[in-house]
Design brief:
single chain; 331 residues; Tyrosyl-Transfer RNA Synthetase; 5 strands; 7% strand; binds adenosine-5'-triphosphate; binds L-tryptophanamide
Length: 331
């Protein structure tokens, strides 16, 4: 697998949850020494729903600091802000002409977000997957580590890449989603059939990476469980299964080992242990993020270097694309 390229991104559109951490950032860490990794702050995706400009700017930097605090090493990976590399928008335009309106209308996330933001169903919201395809294809990524909800977007990226290659000759690497079995879908603590989401209105449903120890313990204490008192993984026990998955993800244990840890124990003790595991893991991340955010010069330097590196790769791919499709690029 040597020589492979990895691409992923998160939108700086709200407070990240432990779902974002477990489903994506955590899985990036063991890839960075083996592969050529690109991790972006997807601020161009974020504006497909309304954002307060000053908050968007602040959150972008907070997200960069969070990546690093979680263990993403800017010496090993390319860490950058999407809007600082103009080729994303340029390639998206080309790919738009190979994507059908009907395909975009069928995307689950588009349908969900259209319902949620019925007063702002803008072209960007519909075009979101094409911009994501441009992100991934610009870097010729082989692997895209994301949570389960992004599977459909990686599938459409593959379709677009194959379509382009068939029409214009081999140009893009056809990427694969990398979705780890454990933790690909962390669920809401209040409605465990639903995905935990950073935009949930119920603050008890999601554990944010910025929550302090008390808030974390309180949210787990209030988490919805199931009617019997057995602590085991089972489809008919979504509440307990979700807590076991979270515990396993934060302690590095398998779900089976987690089950064993709590055999014969009560829900109260179990919920406290899950909360403690999460709080213990997040405390040093929060401290490191706060420290980094005070060092704006360092963060600025990392992002400038990242944008420059990303730009070089992106320019190469875009120029190849322009050549293939017949765009005049000078003599
Ligand atoms: P929103 O709910 O506001 O649409 P989000 O929480 O889904 O946002 P994104 O920025 O869209 O956040 O996702 C960032 C990454 O986190 C993606 O790889 C996504 O698959 C992953 N992710 C998000 N929520 C979860 C979850 N509950 N469990 C596992 N992975 C998740
Ligand atoms: N849509 C993604 C964020 C994202 C992304 C990407 C993920 C934007 N561009 C490219 C992987 C690869 C999301 O997580 N909601």
């Amino acid at each position: 697998m040597e020589g492979k390229t990895v691409y992923s991104a998160i939108q700086p559109s709200g407070n990240l949850t432990i779902g974002n951490y477990v489903g994506s950032i955590r899985n990036w860490l063991n890839m960075q020494s083996e592969y050529d990794c690109y991790f972006a702050m997807a601020n161009m995706h974020a504006i497909t729903v309304r954002q307060e400009p000053s908050e968007l700017r602040r959150r972008t930097l907070e997200l960069a600091a969070l990546y690093i605090a979680c263990g993403v090493d800017p010496e090993k990976c390319t860490l950058y802000v999407q809007s600082q590399v103009p080729q994303h928008a340029e390639l998206a335009w080309v790919l738009n002409t190979l994507t059908y309106v009907g395909e975009m209308e069928r995307m689950t996330q588009f349908k969900d977000k259209s319902r949620k933001h019925a007063d702002n169903i803008n072209m960007g919201l519909m075009d979101y997957p094409v911009l994501m395809a441009a992100d991934i294809l610009l870097y010729q990524a082989d692997l895209v580590p994301v949570g389960q909800d992004q599977t459909q977007h990686v599938e459409i990226t593959r379709d677009i890449a194959v379509r382009f290659n068939n029409r214009f000759g081999d140009t893009f690497t056809v990427p694969q989603a990398l979705i780890l079995k454990q933790g690909a879908k962390i669920c809401s603590l209040q409605e465990p059939e639903k995905k935990m989401s950073k935009s949930d209105e119920n603050p008890n449903a999601s554990v944010y990476l910025t929550d302090d120890r008390d808030a974390i313990l309180r949210k787990f204490k209030r988490a919805v469980t199931d009617s019997d008192s057995e602590i085991r993984l089972a489809p008919e026990k979504p509440g307990i299964s979700n807590l076991l998955t979270i515990y396993a993800s934060f302690t590095g244990k398998t779900a089976g080992e987690a089950e064993k840890d709590f055999a014969g124990k009560g829900y109260g003790e179990f919920k406290l242990a899950v909360g403690e595991a999460v709080a213990d893991k997040l405390a040093p991340v929060q401290q490191e993020q706060a420290r980094l955010l005070k060092d704006k010069a360092y963060l600025g330097g990392v992002l400038a270097a990242g944008a420059e590196r990303a730009y070089k790769t992106a320019r190469k791919t875009l120029s190849k694309v322009y050549r293939k499709i017949g765009f005049y690029q000078g003599e």
